[in-house]
Amino acid sequence: MTMNSDQKNGVKTVPGQISVAYDHVDKSYDGQNLVVRDLCLAVQRGEFLTLLGPSGSGKTTSLMMLAGFENPTRGRIYLNGVPVETVPPEKRNIGFVFQNYALFPHMNVAENIAFPLRYRGIKGAAARQKVDEALAMVRLSGLHGRKPAQLSGGQQQRVALARALVFDPQLVLMDEPLGALDKQLREQMQFEIKQIHARLGVTFVYVTHDQSEALTLSDRIAVFHDGRIEQIATPTALYDQPQTAFVARFIGENNFFEVTVTAATAPPADSVGIAGQAHFYRVTTQDGASLVAWSHHVMAAGSKAILAIRPERLEFAASAAPSATHNYIRATLEKSFFLGDHLRLQFAVFGPESLIVKAPPHLAVPAMGQSLTLTAPMAAWQIFPPTQNTQKTGVA
Ligand SMILES: Nc1ncnc2c1ncn2[C@@H]1O[C@H](COP(=O)(O)OP(=O)(O)OP(=O)(O)O)[C@@H](O)[C@H]1O
Ligand SMILES: [Mg+2]
């Protein structure tokens, strides 16, 4: 399901397939500014969906409304086809790991994990068994008696995870659960969360502003920008075919250039692999070079556009022979950085602009100042309309 079909048709709530549905949800805290705007989103049962976006884009607010700690200003949210406002938060059967979440410091590990069970009236041997199972799942068996202060950051995070899963929730919400951990531990925990998701088949809605974490974990990613979903798609589709310049900037690395659209042109022979409708255009760079690029958008001749090319798509070309399938550009090597797994080369190109190329690490680096030819297939060159003004709309 794409953002477009969700947004155009509203959300269809089919119990049994859709776990969560936001139907035209707006949220304002102050009655003036919308921090979530017209959110339409359907999460499939068993899906791992990530909300990704910059700070303040409305991710936590969207989770809080689902959990029942905030109410939508407009619109509805459904859980298994039932509007949530008819279900109190404690009856929603949702497991949480909150942003900056802390365990109860005075309780030991077992008591922390058993807390949601006690709340649901599960006690004694049944509760002990559940706690043991949850501890085993996060690989902390035997640490029942430790206090949170006696655990490492990663262990505390695993206790929080066990606590969210111990009562067999139908849905697990996690808000930046790994934000406080160092890179290595974060990657290890990502792997464990992915395994637990695969094993339990529970629906996950996960929040992060770390794009590599989102790409690693998710079935689909919803990119938030200023209270709206810019694009919702699989990790591969988001990376290879961003719908907007914002997504192209936010996911992965991109080189951007200002260009002018000259004319529409026929698709090149090797343009297959671009999903959805692609329009091809001849464009002119600031220094007059002519290239072919594609877009999801219809662009008028003479209009300004933003051209994006990923650093890893560019290669050295032996010659700049005209081609029906590739663009060639002249570029002057300015700097080179060795980063272990790749070489980062900086070129002067298109007049005042510079361009980054990621090359294999043991490539023989050409001399600085040398003029070279770079190439990439036309499907790698994408253009977007210039970014629109994103003004806040008030609540009517
Ligand atoms: N309780 C609140 N009262 C008033 N404004 C709030 C409240 N909570 C959040 N906001 C505002 O709503 C907007 C969205 O906040 P939210 O916490 O949803 O963002 P976020 O995407 O989770 O950001 P982050 O990545 O920093 O956690 C922000 O402008 C924030 O200042
Ligand atoms: Mg947040």
**Ranges with pLDDT <50 over ≥5 residues?**
1-15, 389-396
Q: Give the total of beta strands.
A: 20
Counting helices, strands and paired strands, the structural category is alpha+beta
The outline comes out as: elongated
Radius of gyration based on Cα positions: 25 Å
Biggest sheet details: 6 strands, mixed
- Percent of residues in helices comes to 10-25%
Percent range for β-strand residues? 25-35%
CA-CA gap between termini: 30 Å
Bound molecules: adenosine-5'-triphosphate, magnesium ion
Q: Look at the structure and give the mean pLDDT.
A: 88
Total count of helical runs of at least 4 residues:
9
* Strand arrangement, major sheet: 6-7-8-3-9-10
Q: Secondary-structure element sequence?
A: HEEEHEEEHHHEHEHEEHHEEEEEEEEEE
Can you tell me about this structure?
The chain is α+β, with helices and mostly antiparallel strands and 396 residues long. Helices cover 23% and strands 32% of the residues. It is built from 9 helices and 20 strands. The chain has helices at 3-9, 59-67, 109-119, 124-137, 153-165, 183-200, 211-217, 235-240, 245-250; strands at 18-27, 36-44, 48-52, 74-79, 82-83, 94-97, 171-175, 203-208, 220-225, 228-233, 255-265, 279-285, 290-295, 304-309, 315-316, 326-338, 343-349, 353-359, 371-377, 382-384. A 6-stranded mixed sheet has the order 6-7-8-3-9-10, with helices on both faces. Helix 3 crosses helix 4, helix 3 (109-119) runs parallel beside helix 5 (153-165) and helix 4 packs across helix 5. It is elongated and about 80 Å long. It starts with a helix and ends in a 12-residue tail after the last strand. Residues 1-15 and 389-396 have low confidence and may be disordered. It binds adenosine-5'-triphosphate (ATP) and magnesium ion (MG). Residues 59-60, 99, 175 line the site of magnesium ion.
